[in-house]
Amino acid sequence: MTEAVPAELWPDLLTLWDYHRMRHEPRRTDIGIGLGGHDIGVARCAADLYRNGLFPRIVFTGANAPTTIERFPRGEAVHFREEAVKLGVPGEAILLETRATNTGENIAFTRELLAELGIEVRSVTLISRPYQERRAYATCRRLWPEVEVVCASQPVSLAEYLRAIGDADRVINMIVGDTQRIIEYPGRGFAIPQEVPTEVLAAYRRLVAAGYTRRLIG
């Protein structure tokens, strides 16, 4: 699958991939939150962390986006739950939030659900796609500032991830789009600011110039 990425763009793509991964050390938290999307690996990562005793419950959150309706017709959270149960997570340890259509709603609606159920949360593990970690962190710190946040995703390389997803063009567009959101969302009140190193900004601009613009916001 790496052959689908132009060789001259590979270093820039790696720069963004490395930037978005927070590299938090796993530690025990009050709950795991699996963020919906096109990558069933989120559910697998959540199941692994649960089996390792890092949290007592998982919330899978996500309705559908145009890019996931065909893959997960019953909703992202529902399919993620089914995958986690197959991997040994007890059904009673999983909560579902089935309305969210973006990362902000994932966080806000999960927070509402837990409050409604009377579940006290002081720390969370956010489980996401590897290149979504930084945006998930920045979003949660903005919308739920009182909780401690640990980010997690499958421990795979960029090449392994591209092979697993099987659609390099989609992944590159998503990584470029997430980078733009790190830059733009603090000004819109959606996330806390994150430092964007010069080399990251340059790599992002070159990938935009190369035509990876499908996930950019106006």
TrEMBL record:
Domain of life: Bacteria
GO cellular component terms, A-Z: plasma membrane
DUF218 domain ranges (all copies): 43-149
Gene3D superfamilies with a match to the protein in the record: HUPs
CDD domains: YdcF-like
Alphabetical list of InterPro entries matching this protein: Cell_Envelope_Assoc, DUF218, Rossmann-like_a/b/a_fold
PANTHER family reported in the protein's UniProt record: DUF218 DOMAIN-CONTAINING PROTEIN, INNER MEMBRANE PROTEIN, PROBABLE PERMEASE
Listed name of the protein: DUF218 domain-containing protein
Lineage, highest ranks first: Bacteria, Bacillati, Actinomycetota, Actinomycetes, Streptosporangiales
